[in-house]
Amino acid sequence: MKLVLFDDYKPGLLKGDAVVDLTGVVPQGKTGQETIEGIITGFESIRGTLTQQLNSGKTVPLSSVKLRAPLPRPSKVICMGVNYLEFTKAKPLPILVFLKSPEAILDPGGTVTLPPAEFRICHHEAEVVVVFGKRGRNIPEAQWNDYVFGYTNGCDVSARGEFGGNSYIGKSFDGFCPIGPAITTKDEIADPYKLQVRFWVDGQDRHNYGTDDMGHKISECVSYVSTIMTINPGDILLLGTNHQGIGPLQDGESAEMETTGLGRLTFKVSDPLKRTWPKEIDAAMAATIRGRLEAAK
Question: What is the pLDDT of residue 162?
Answer without folding.
Answer: 86
